[in-house]
Amino acid sequence: MSTLDLSGCHPIFVRQIECLQNKDIDGLMETYHREATVVRFQGILNGFDEIRDTFGRYMDIQARYERLLEYTHSEDTIFMRAVMSVRGERELGFGAYVLRDGLIWRQVAGIEGGMRDWFAQNGSTGHAEGRPEAPGGRR
């Protein structure tokens, strides 16, 4: 993360990235409002318990943010696109956040590359034993 320039980013975004990269699920959940909704290509996560369960299952996929391509924020919104690596595969990640009471209340996020298929197939099992290797192809 030392190469990722987070200067000028919203504090809640900085905290979320730090927690994701350090596999800190408790810290990550502190960035979400208790009534938060997360919309991803795999589906919609409603509320704290669903978000915690799903992100907890994905904490071991070695997701690393490498470089922000686009970033902007206001008092109540954040938008970003970033180069990421996920399980060793280079990806483009994106996210749009609506904040309430200084916490993430609604988040739309996803991955634009080949790992999309892996996440879609493993949406309900997360990091279950025997998971398939990362796909080699790109779209």
TrEMBL record:
Residues 15-106 form the SnoaL-like domain. InterPro entries: NTF2-like_dom_sf, SnoaL-like. This is SnoaL-like domain-containing protein. It comes from Streptomyces leeuwenhoekii. The lineage of its organism: Bacteria, Bacillati, Actinomycetota, Actinomycetes, Kitasatosporales. The gene is sle_09370.
